[in-house]
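How a chain folds remains the central question behind the approach discussed here. For one protein, we set the task of working out the structure tokens from the amino acid sequence alone. The sequence in question and its structure tokens are set out directly beneath this paragraph.

_____
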Amino acid sequence: MTHQTHRDPLSSHLHTDTVDPDTLRHPDLDSERVPEHVAIIMDGNGRWARQRGLARIEGHEAGTENIRRITFTAGRIGIKYLTLWAFSSENWRRPKEEVDGILSILSRAIVTETDELDRQGAQLRHIGDLGSLAPGLQDAIRGAIDRTRSNTRLVLTLAFNYGGRQELVHAIQDIVASGISPSAIDEQLVERHLYTSELPDPDLIIRTSGEYRLSNFLLWQGAYSELFFCPVLWPDFGPEHLEEAVLEYTRRERRFGSISNTNSR
């Protein structure tokens, strides 16, 4: 089931005067129904910059700055797993100057944000292909992961150099290399060979910027995810928009191929 919101910045049911500033929790939000795992396609940095007459890299800077407040909000409203798609395996096709700038921003963010993530009790993980990144960046990511490994308040997973098809090919290659009989291959085996083997499937996938597609993101894991499309560009996607998406999620009935509890058709 998909949803699109055309109200900007907030829907009619989510005015700022109804959000508790201390908890960032909408009064209608049932904490028992908050999704365990939310994944976000952070889209719109370039358009955000263009609208302001800025260089595209400044949009990526603003988008990176936004990760902190969304991660903080996710933890406060009870989300246990937050996955953010920061760089796709297809993004290498962009101009070299932009790619180099994004990699530089990530390198700085890993250095500057790890202390705060650790202080907030967030555990950092990575999905995607680290091998294509510079050795120094690989080491920085692995170091941040090791440092926050024992934290339990929130698991923040960065999908960097990630693609859903790439992930499935990697899993198939692993399975073939292990010599497993075709008759022994089932869904559980495939899942154990995915980058996300230690993560639950996302309950809710959000895409910002008004695009209505998954664009090769969590293709296997998102089979039964609820989808929420928001027109707001990622740098402007704030706590209130995350609340709106989660509130919409709590109002849906997830059936996983079964029938509705309120409709026996």
